[in-house]
Amino acid sequence: MCGIAGFIDGTINDTDKKRSIAHAMGEAMYRRGPDGGEIWLSPDHGVAFAHRRLSIIDLSSAGQQPMAASCGRYVLVYNGEIYNAAQIRAKILSQYDIKFKGHSDTEVLLEAIANWGIKDTLHHLIGMFVFAVWDKKLKRLTLCRDRVGIKPLYWSYNKGAFIFGSILKALKKHPKCPTQIDQNSIASFLRLNYIPAPQSIYQDVHKLLPGHILTFDADGDKTPKLTTYWSLDQAVRQGKNTPFSGTENEAITTLEELLEDAVAKRMISDVPFGAFLSGGIDSSTVAALMQKQSSSPIKTFSIGFEDQAYNEAQHAAHVAKHLGTEHTELYVTPAEARAVIPNLADIYDEPFADSSQIPTYLVSKLTRNHVTVALSGDGGDELFGGYRRYITAHRYGNKISHLPKFVGNLSSGIIQSLSPQTWDQIFKIVPDNKRPSHPGDTLYKLASVLGETSDGYYRKLVSNWQNPNSILNRGQEYQGILWDQTIEQSLPNNVERMQYLDTLTYLPDDILTKVDRASMAASLEARVPLLDHRVVEFSWSLPMHMKIRNGQGKWILRKVLDKYVPSGLIDRPKMGFGIPIDNWLRGPLKSWSNDLLSEQYLQKQGLLNSSLVQEKLQQHQAGTHNWQHQLWAILMLQSWLESN
Questions:
Q1: How far apart are CA 476 and CA 482, in angstroms?
Q2: Which of 92, 362, 364, 573 is the most exposed place for a label (fewest CB within 10 A)?
Q3: Would you say the pTM of this structure is higher than 0.85?
Q4: pLDDT tens-digit readout, 259-303
Q5: Residue 338: what pLDDT?
């Protein structure tokens, strides 16, 4: 795991200046790669690459980057892991007379590109990656990102300079990097809690989309060109056109074999490794398959909280004991969790407001004290129907979206006549093992979509602020894929449409961004076996009844896990990985939030509607409404603005 950056700027003739900029770009990514940092400069076209290294495979200098191919034509900087590097290496050696200097996956990737070409190489890869390769012959820079967007990559072309990097901090070290805030992106952020790709917080700075290739010809028309080599659309069509035709038992066996291989490949490491374990279905499945393939107890990690509504540690401990893992848990006090907040703007690099960013960082920090690589269970919800909104849509989706408007408004009004806290109290009559966590918030989310058309149903479900333009003094929200009405034609099933949209947006821009930034802030490599592209493609070949059944999601994944862990240790309402932001904003964070959201401060900045923000803040602090998520987004924006 590493950080990469670079630029092409023909206006910089001074070699020392070019080296200084490249060095600064690399140093900005130090935490992504504390084990070493190198730069490479080309005498022509003002090309420079910077790399920070977190040594995982081949710890020797033979794995050092930037790396030149044996033929001398290509130079590469790369961030990620290619899990089938050994198989690719063997295939290259069977075809060509090449002598490898070491056994790093970097060298395998580079020699594959040199001999097969970039597109053919990409189709061979199983892994997570972003890379940049300079072709000395064609004077061409090519950037590539993995299929589902596990690793990040930003780019910009401004004032004759093409700049790229793993994080915005690296790009900003180049003097021509745009730093004008994109207020339209802020509107998108307020709706979603993240800035959706390809936008970033800055105008004219973009995120490379998953499954995409960008080419930039230094001797050509100097127009960045984008193409795809893999798409979720293609995976969905393939799955629909050739659905799985075997029995349920055969489907379970196939998935188990795929997951076992995906996990095995992600256990390849020259440094200690372990797994995050929450005690839920996804992380427990990963841990179980790791333990199955290990001759000694694997290391598992979880954190716990004093507030039982947010504490999963005891569930993780039970699963760990059953599997026989070497388990480490850390109970974190509220004060220790809140101590992370001042660092969030620095860790996440641009406004980001998924509050589980705090425990994700804490568990990454804990884990890094023991290992350098950790496997995570992310992706299972999107692929196998785990989110509560999928269950609701499966049961009621069409009925909700076809309710007469007046019925929807009436039902919504009844729900909102009581506060979320009151609903939480009412739901205490439901047994613990059947009661969802935070039912009041869930009901309020349902109230927001009652009577909504199918087109707006998903958008409202995932919206933080329903009308973010109203909060901004200037700016209009980008209307991207969430407004694309053609998706309903190709995916008429409500749940499949939600899974598709989540996998394209929420998964890479929220979940994977959260894990990448949190783990990299601790210099920990996080690997996600459930997002092996072979598993993604297989999931779309399965019928819905193998995902959602009897009011539960992830049916087929549960069946795999049943072979290793008794269902009694797993069966409980989905909790999520959260913290009590609502109570904190009324208590220990009240002074901090009052300062950042004061009317005087907001008016001085001029970005937000200060009276509307103040109204929500006062209602929340009075306990009449729960605006925790909406206020957290604004607080994260304010915190970022203050530090940049």
A1: 15
A2: 573
A3: yes
A4: 999 999 999 998 999 999 999 999 999 999 999 999 999 999 999
A5: 94
Q: In whole angstroms, give the CA distance from residue 165 to residue 7.
A: 9
Q: Is the predicted pLDDT of residue 402 greater than 70, yes or no?
A: no
Percent of all residues in the chain with a pLDDT value above 90, rounded to a whole number: 75
Q: Report how far apart, in Å, the C-alpha atoms of 177 and of each of 34, 52, 110, 154, 219 are.
A: 25, 20, 28, 11, 21
96-130 in b/e form (b: 16+ CB < 10 A) is eeeeeebbbbbbbbbbbbbbbebeebbebbbbbbb
Does the active-site annotation cover 144? no
The C-alpha atoms of residue 360 and residue 431 are separated, in whole angstroms, by 29
Own/partner pairs for 30-37, CB < 8 Å, 24+ apart?
31/520, 31/521, 31/522, 31/523, 32/1, 32/2, 32/3, 32/79, 32/166, 32/167, 32/520, 32/523, 33/1, 33/2, 33/3, 33/523, 34/523, 36/64
Whole-number average pLDDT of the chain: 91
Under DSSP, is residue 194 helix (H, G, I), strand (E, B) or coil? coil
Reduced to 3 DSSP states, what percent helix, strand and coil does the chain have, rounded to the nearest 5? 50, 15, 35
Give the pLDDT band of residue 224 (cuts 50, 70, 90).
very high
DSSP calls for 195-212: --TT--SBTT-EEPPTTE
Q: Decide: residue 549, CB within 10 A, 0-12 exposed, 13-18 middle, 19+ buried.
A: middle
Per residue in 248-265, pLDDT (tens digit) is: 999 999 999 999 999 999
503: left (phi over 0), alpha (psi -120 to 50) or beta: alpha
Q: Please tell me the distance from the alpha carbon of residue 138 to that of residue 389, in angstroms, as a whole number.
A: 49
Taking the mean position of all CA atoms in its chain, how far away is CA 296?
31
Q: 408-433: per-residue pLDDT in tens?
A: 555 555 666 566 667 677 777 777 66
Alpha-carbon span 289 to 552, nearest angstrom = 22
How far apart (Å, rounded) are the C-alpha atoms in residues 472 and 187?
7
Q: What is the largest CA-CA distance in the chain?
A: 75
**Pairing between β-strand 161-165 and β-strand 2-9 as defined by DSSP bridges:** antiparallel
pLDDT at 320: 97
Instruction: Give the Cα separation of 294 and 371 in Å (integer).
Output: 16
**Could you tell me which of 62, 57, 54, 56 has the C-alpha nearest to residue 36?**
54
Task: Say which of 2, 71, 144, 177 is annotated catalytic.
Answer: 2
The pair of structure tokens assigned to 629 is 């998520």
Tokens of 432: 């613990």
